[in-house]
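Why show two proteins at once? Because comparison is the fastest way to build intuition. When a single record is shown, students tend to memorize it. When two are placed side by side, the eye starts asking what differs. So, the first record is below.
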Amino acid sequence: MLVPFEAVSRDSRILLSALGALAIGILPATAQEGAGSFVEEFDRLDAKRWYISDGWANGEHQNCVWSKGMVSISDGVLKLGIAKQQAKDREYVCGEIQTHKKFGHGTYEARIKAAAGSGLNTGFFTYIGPTHKQPHDEIDFEILGKDPSKVQLNQYVNGKGGNEKLVPVPGGADADFNDYAFVWEKDRIRWFINGELVHTADDPARLPSHAAKIYFSLWGSDNLKSWLGSFAELSEPKTAEVDRIAFTALGDECQFPESVACSLD
């Protein structure tokens, strides 16, 4: 299924990993070539920075169609929804945004309140892949709505994952806003929750090396039951909220007092 150039999400990996061979022979954009630091407070949705996914689904695993109507800003908070509404061949619509630019080594931070519900996935991640004429590299925070007391961490290198780790979120990821951050360096990735280090990956063979786009999404699935749980039909919309997103390139000064980048070694 063809999708717009900007329209590739991490959810596409099930379909796109098999296409990784297309990237062979293409000169990739390395992590060091990424865009510069920024802080997004979501006073508005800056169309120069963000692209809203709209009008397609990322494969049979996704039971909703991306819709601009499921993306909104209210009181400085980005809201991504999923709701029962017929769209093409799906019974639900859902929300995703992605950056136009690609970003490299640095500190990625977001303040998120996730959606609860079996079969749902609230995601904050970086992704690049064959549709961008690049290898599939990815770094994830994924909150599985079946158990929002935890968040799943993961990373992909040239389409190969298998690095999943579940870590607790104090008080629950759906009960209030929590701060999620990962620091991506050449020789390691460190994940943080509310400023506390929760996981480190430092195997050179398992570290992404290509600049990637930043994504936020809320979506559901009827058939990924072993991972997301059985989808619970929605009688009313569900919403994930994002209060702030920041990227601080390695070597740049930290941009706000609570930033993990302020206390890195």
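Second record. Ask yourself what differs from the first in the token line.
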Amino acid sequence: MTLAAQPTSPDPALDQSIAPDQPVAADTAVLAAGHVDIGPRYVDDEWTLLLHDDAAQPVWRDPDRTVLRVTDAALQTVPDDPVYGFLDVPAGTEVHVVPQVQHPDVVWVGWNTQDPRVMQTIDRGVTLELAGVEGPGEVTMYLQAGTFSEPQVLWRSTEPPGQPMWVEVNTHTHANWVFTAPGVYLVAVRVSADLVGGEQVSAVRHLRFAVGDAVSTDDAFAAQPDEVAAAPVASDGADGQGAAADGTGDGTGPWLVGGLVLAAVVLAVALVVVVLRGRAVRRRVEQERAAS
């Protein structure tokens, strides 16, 4: 089986809405087939990232209590086509692919921004970032619109963490996830947003993948992720000055501020000296006039 290009027409399965009262499941789960989305959600008024599972009764799931099992039904062969060179895998190699279009025997992983409270509170959309990948191989996520379309690479574990992806409010999308070796993968995803009230929110969660029939889901549950670095402070770019607007962008800010403070102190001292000298001169003149 070769990596299949995706149809150009919209997938009817992407047309969905999410009820505001859908619960967060408390049990552990292994999801080996069916429809799953990662998406922002509030839990006890805290912004976070959960898994929306509607394989049966729609529920939200905690990523730490859920394993996404990618069975050998997901095996595909890398074609002898230079457009797939971004995978850095020789043509003819078998890889596990969570496909962009649903396969009945493979878990179908996408993302959405359709939780009702999220849609009411975010300003236009959210940013999804690949915050890190731990596993025996490489992970790549890409979109492909049709047979003759170039793949659009979204995330690559061979690149530095980050790779921000903007997702509009009320979006539901799926892509191809390629795993180059069987094993347990922890994929750290950061979801950030500006809220309509002016606040900024961000959260990082780890998706647990057990890739390959021979891989233990118990090992995936037991895996302990490395600590993920905090997101860099981004410039708002509103005035074109960004981080350098306060003089701190190139490391000269503290020296500049310190110099201005010192100059102000020197000026104040000089002013006091001038005032005192003026008073002394005035008193001396008045005394000389009285004596004469």
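One difference worth noting in the second protein: The first strand starts at residue 29 and ends at 31.
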